[in-house]
Amino acid sequence: MSSNLRATGDRIEELVSQLRGTLDPVTWRLVEEALALVTDLYGAGLAAAVRTLKSDGVAGPVLLDRLVEDELVASLLVLHGLHPRDLSERVEGALLSVRPYLGSHGGDVEVIELDEDAGVLRLRLLGSCDGCPGSTATLRHSVEQAVAEAAPEIVTIEVEGLEEPEPPPVPDQPVAIGRKPVAVT
Question: Does position 50 have pLDDT exceeding 60, yes or no?
Fold first, then answer.
Protein backbone atom coordinates (compact mmCIF):
# COMPACT_ATOMS: atom_id res chain seq x y z
CA MET A 1 0.00 0.00 0.00
CA SER A 2 1.47 3.29 -0.98
CA SER A 3 1.95 5.98 1.60
CA ASN A 4 -1.00 7.94 0.16
CA LEU A 5 -3.32 4.96 0.60
CA ARG A 6 -2.00 4.35 4.09
CA ALA A 7 -2.40 8.05 4.94
CA THR A 8 -5.95 8.00 3.60
CA GLY A 9 -6.80 4.93 5.67
CA ASP A 10 -5.29 6.51 8.77
CA ARG A 11 -7.23 9.72 8.15
CA ILE A 12 -10.51 7.80 7.74
CA GLU A 13 -9.90 6.01 11.05
CA GLU A 14 -9.07 9.31 12.72
CA LEU A 15 -12.26 10.97 11.42
CA VAL A 16 -14.42 8.03 12.46
CA SER A 17 -12.85 8.09 15.92
CA GLN A 18 -13.51 11.82 16.22
CA LEU A 19 -17.12 11.38 15.12
CA ARG A 20 -17.63 8.54 17.60
CA GLY A 21 -16.31 10.71 20.39
CA THR A 22 -18.28 13.84 19.58
CA LEU A 23 -21.68 12.64 18.41
CA ASP A 24 -24.57 11.65 20.61
CA PRO A 25 -25.41 7.91 20.52
CA VAL A 26 -28.43 8.27 18.21
CA THR A 27 -26.53 10.35 15.65
CA TRP A 28 -23.51 8.04 15.91
CA ARG A 29 -25.71 4.99 15.11
CA LEU A 30 -27.00 6.80 12.01
CA VAL A 31 -23.45 7.61 10.90
CA GLU A 32 -22.39 3.98 11.50
CA GLU A 33 -25.35 2.71 9.48
CA ALA A 34 -24.59 5.10 6.62
CA LEU A 35 -20.91 4.05 6.59
CA ALA A 36 -21.89 0.37 6.62
CA LEU A 37 -24.32 0.86 3.74
CA VAL A 38 -21.73 2.69 1.63
CA THR A 39 -19.17 -0.04 2.35
CA ASP A 40 -21.68 -2.78 1.54
CA LEU A 41 -22.65 -0.99 -1.68
CA TYR A 42 -19.17 -0.74 -3.14
CA GLY A 43 -18.35 -4.21 -1.81
CA ALA A 44 -21.33 -5.62 -3.71
CA GLY A 45 -20.10 -3.83 -6.83
CA LEU A 46 -16.65 -5.34 -6.42
CA ALA A 47 -18.15 -8.80 -5.87
CA ALA A 48 -20.14 -8.47 -9.10
CA ALA A 49 -17.01 -7.37 -10.98
CA VAL A 50 -14.99 -10.31 -9.59
CA ARG A 51 -17.78 -12.80 -10.47
CA THR A 52 -17.93 -11.42 -14.00
CA LEU A 53 -14.17 -11.62 -14.45
CA LYS A 54 -13.96 -15.16 -13.07
CA SER A 55 -16.67 -16.38 -15.43
CA ASP A 56 -15.35 -14.63 -18.52
CA GLY A 57 -13.40 -17.45 -20.14
CA VAL A 58 -9.65 -16.98 -20.25
CA ALA A 59 -9.42 -13.20 -20.44
CA GLY A 60 -11.39 -12.51 -17.25
CA PRO A 61 -9.14 -14.40 -14.82
CA VAL A 62 -6.07 -12.92 -16.51
CA LEU A 63 -7.49 -9.44 -16.11
CA LEU A 64 -8.37 -10.19 -12.46
CA ASP A 65 -4.76 -11.28 -11.85
CA ARG A 66 -3.59 -7.99 -13.34
CA LEU A 67 -6.03 -6.00 -11.20
CA VAL A 68 -4.83 -7.56 -7.94
CA GLU A 69 -1.35 -6.26 -8.73
CA ASP A 70 -2.78 -2.78 -8.06
CA GLU A 71 -2.37 -2.04 -4.35
CA LEU A 72 -5.68 -0.21 -4.00
CA VAL A 73 -7.70 -2.88 -5.79
CA ALA A 74 -5.94 -5.65 -3.87
CA SER A 75 -6.57 -4.01 -0.51
CA LEU A 76 -10.26 -3.47 -1.32
CA LEU A 77 -10.61 -7.10 -2.42
CA VAL A 78 -9.00 -8.26 0.85
CA LEU A 79 -11.28 -5.95 2.84
CA HIS A 80 -14.35 -7.54 1.26
CA GLY A 81 -13.04 -11.12 1.30
CA LEU A 82 -12.93 -11.20 -2.51
CA HIS A 83 -9.19 -11.52 -3.20
CA PRO A 84 -8.71 -14.41 -5.63
CA ARG A 85 -5.46 -15.52 -3.97
CA ASP A 86 -5.62 -17.29 -0.62
CA LEU A 87 -3.72 -16.06 2.41
CA SER A 88 -0.67 -18.30 1.94
CA GLU A 89 -0.33 -17.23 -1.70
CA ARG A 90 -0.44 -13.56 -0.70
CA VAL A 91 2.14 -14.12 2.07
CA GLU A 92 4.45 -15.94 -0.38
CA GLY A 93 3.95 -13.10 -2.89
CA ALA A 94 4.89 -10.56 -0.24
CA LEU A 95 8.03 -12.49 0.68
CA LEU A 96 8.88 -12.88 -3.00
CA SER A 97 8.74 -9.09 -3.34
CA VAL A 98 11.38 -8.57 -0.62
CA ARG A 99 13.67 -11.48 -1.58
CA PRO A 100 15.75 -9.35 -3.98
CA TYR A 101 16.48 -6.93 -1.14
CA LEU A 102 17.30 -9.71 1.31
CA GLY A 103 19.35 -11.46 -1.39
CA SER A 104 21.39 -8.32 -1.98
CA HIS A 105 22.56 -8.78 1.63
CA GLY A 106 23.14 -12.53 1.16
CA GLY A 107 20.00 -13.49 3.01
CA ASP A 108 16.57 -14.98 2.53
CA VAL A 109 13.45 -15.81 4.50
CA GLU A 110 11.21 -18.86 4.67
CA VAL A 111 7.81 -19.59 6.15
CA ILE A 112 7.88 -22.03 9.05
CA GLU A 113 4.16 -21.93 9.82
CA LEU A 114 1.10 -19.91 8.92
CA ASP A 115 -1.76 -20.15 11.43
CA GLU A 116 -4.61 -18.57 9.48
CA ASP A 117 -7.11 -18.83 12.34
CA ALA A 118 -4.87 -16.96 14.80
CA GLY A 119 -3.31 -14.68 12.16
CA VAL A 120 0.21 -15.73 13.16
CA LEU A 121 3.05 -16.08 10.67
CA ARG A 122 6.28 -17.79 11.79
CA LEU A 123 9.35 -17.05 9.69
CA ARG A 124 13.02 -18.04 9.65
CA LEU A 125 15.74 -15.75 8.37
CA LEU A 126 18.37 -17.54 6.29
CA GLY A 127 21.85 -16.75 5.07
CA SER A 128 23.55 -13.63 6.28
CA CYS A 129 20.24 -12.27 7.65
CA ASP A 130 20.41 -14.93 10.36
CA GLY A 131 22.24 -13.29 13.23
CA CYS A 132 22.92 -10.08 11.33
CA PRO A 133 22.69 -7.05 13.63
CA GLY A 134 20.54 -5.33 11.01
CA SER A 135 18.07 -8.24 10.85
CA THR A 136 15.56 -6.58 13.13
CA ALA A 137 15.51 -3.40 11.09
CA THR A 138 15.47 -5.37 7.83
CA LEU A 139 12.56 -7.43 9.04
CA ARG A 140 10.56 -4.53 10.37
CA HIS A 141 11.09 -2.25 7.38
CA SER A 142 10.75 -4.70 4.54
CA VAL A 143 9.27 -8.09 5.42
CA GLU A 144 6.65 -6.92 7.91
CA GLN A 145 5.54 -4.05 5.69
CA ALA A 146 5.23 -6.28 2.62
CA VAL A 147 3.25 -8.90 4.56
CA ALA A 148 1.00 -6.28 6.17
CA GLU A 149 0.12 -4.81 2.79
CA ALA A 150 -0.57 -8.17 1.12
CA ALA A 151 -2.15 -9.95 4.08
CA PRO A 152 -3.64 -7.61 6.68
CA GLU A 153 -5.16 -10.65 8.38
CA ILE A 154 -1.70 -11.42 9.79
CA VAL A 155 -1.64 -9.85 13.24
CA THR A 156 1.63 -11.32 14.51
CA ILE A 157 4.89 -12.18 12.78
CA GLU A 158 7.25 -14.34 14.80
CA VAL A 159 10.80 -14.80 13.57
CA GLU A 160 12.79 -17.82 14.63
CA GLY A 161 16.18 -16.92 16.05
CA LEU A 162 15.74 -13.19 15.69
CA GLU A 163 17.54 -11.36 18.40
CA GLU A 164 15.88 -8.18 19.49
CA PRO A 165 18.29 -5.30 20.11
CA GLU A 166 19.31 -4.74 23.70
CA PRO A 167 17.48 -1.88 25.37
CA PRO A 168 19.70 1.06 26.23
CA PRO A 169 21.28 0.83 29.68
CA VAL A 170 19.60 2.70 32.48
CA PRO A 171 21.99 5.22 34.04
CA ASP A 172 22.92 4.60 37.69
CA GLN A 173 22.40 8.24 38.56
CA PRO A 174 19.82 10.56 37.11
CA VAL A 175 21.13 12.98 34.58
CA ALA A 176 20.46 16.61 35.45
CA ILE A 177 19.75 18.87 32.54
CA GLY A 178 19.85 22.55 33.25
CA ARG A 179 22.09 25.48 33.77
CA LYS A 180 25.37 24.96 35.47
CA PRO A 181 25.42 26.77 38.81
CA VAL A 182 27.34 30.01 38.66
CA ALA A 183 30.07 30.44 41.25
CA VAL A 184 29.53 33.49 43.46
CA THR A 185 32.67 35.37 44.22
Answer: yes
